[in-house]
UniProtKB/TrEMBL annotation:
The family this protein is said to belong to: Belongs to the ABC transporter superfamily.
One MF term in the entry's GO annotations: ATP binding
Alphabetical list of InterPro entries matching this protein: AAA+_ATPase (IPR003593), ABC_transporter-like_ATP-bd (IPR003439), ABC_transporter-like_CS (IPR017871), ABC_transporter_ATP-binding (IPR050763), P-loop_NTPase (IPR027417)
Organism: Methylobacterium goesingense
Name recorded for this polypeptide: ABC-2 type transport system ATP-binding protein
Domain ABC transporter: 5-234
CDD domains registered for this protein in UniProt: ABC_DR_subfamily_A (cd03230)
């Protein structure tokens, strides 16, 4: 099946010489939720801006629903809704007026029933006659989502949608995103919060320094990111790891005083245990190795990105 978005050898170099994107190739499937992860400055917003026709690419091609975003802009852009990071709205307009106006920008006939559904889904119906200047930051972000949905797009971009928003909005947003996916809308979410990708996405892509370094099904990526570490502080230092412990993923720290065990919380081992800790402790006891203390830790998002970059280097 043809992807709803096809990005081919896409690059962007700004006048300053900054290379924001470097040969991006990416296909996004119709009806999926795709999370694009990356640290600040990785190129997420630039990529979205090019696909949405806001920024011109230096090289490459983007197709949206089979329409070239450059040569067939109107048809391509008609398919896309964008919720930007910035809260940019007309302060003096009402919620209803600014949402309805967004629909008209695409040459569509008024559809009050659709606008009402969108506003109700986003808990904005009671605010429909309020001027934008009177709304809180969270309410303004809801309006941005309503504006993006006003013309019934088949593709919805959410650029860092939960940055600085309250828990209630986040919950409403995810409920709405799931309902849109169920109707066939493709949702592309950019974020640097791994938990959002785990909560929402079907597939995950990682971008770093303008390059896509990984695209995988969420379940597989979460399996890889499910690794934790346990550090055992030994009573007596070891000169080397005993052969009896070879089956475990162990690292002996310099000095021989600490053993570091890396384990996967997602996938059972051959004995059906998810962490392998029980087997490790039994083998340590059998080898006569005793420890004073145990500490556990899980990689931070920054560490995970570093590991992914090393894997793809």
């Amino acid at each position: 099946m043809q992807p709803i978005i096809s990005i081919q050898d896409l690059s962007k170099v700004y006048a300053s010489g900054l290379k924001a994107l470097d040969g991006i190739d990416l296909d996004i499937r119709e009806g999926e939720i795709f999370a694009l992860l990356g640290p600040n400055g990785a190129g997420k917003t630039t990529l979205i801006s090019i696909v949405c026709g806001i920024v011109t690419a230096s090289a490459g091609r983007v197709l949206a629903g089979g329409h070239d975003i450059a040569s067939d802009y109107r048809r391509a852009r008609r398919l896309i809704g964008l919720v930007p990071q910035e809260l940019t709205t007309d302060a003096f307009e009402t919620v209803w007026a600014t949402t309805n106006f967004s629909r008209g920008l695409y040459g569509l006939k008024p559809d009050p029933a659709h606008i009402e559904r969108v506003l109700r889904d986003l808990s904005l119906w009671e605010k429909r006659d309020s001027r934008m200047m009177t709304l809180s930051g969270g309410m303004k972000r809801r309006v941005l989502i309503a504006k993006a949905l006003a013309h019934e797009p088949r593709i919805l971009f959410l650029d860092e949608p939960t940055a600085g928003v309250d828990v209630e909005l986040r919950r409403d947003m995810w409920r709405l995103v799931r309902s849109l996916r169920d109707t066939g809308v493709t949702v592309i979410l950019t974020t640097h919060y791994i938990e959002e990708a785990e909560e929402m996405a079907d597939r995950v892509g990682v971008i770093r320094k303008g390059r896509i370094i990984l695209v995988e099904e969420k379940a597989e990526l979460m399996r890889k990111l499910g690794k934790k570490q346990m550090t055992l502080n030994l009573q007596e230092p070891l000169a080397a790891l005993p052969e009896a412990l070879a089956r475990h993923d162990l690292t002996l720290k310099p000095g021989g005083q600490d053993l570091v065990y890396t384990y996967d919380t997602k996938t059972p081992d051959t004995e059906g245990e998810r962490t392998g800790i029980t087997g490790l402790l039994a083998d340590l006891a059998a080898a006569g190795i005793r420890f004073r203390d145990i500490q556990t830790s899980q990689s931070s998002l920054e560490e995970i990105f570093v590991d992914l970059v090393k894997e793809r280097a």
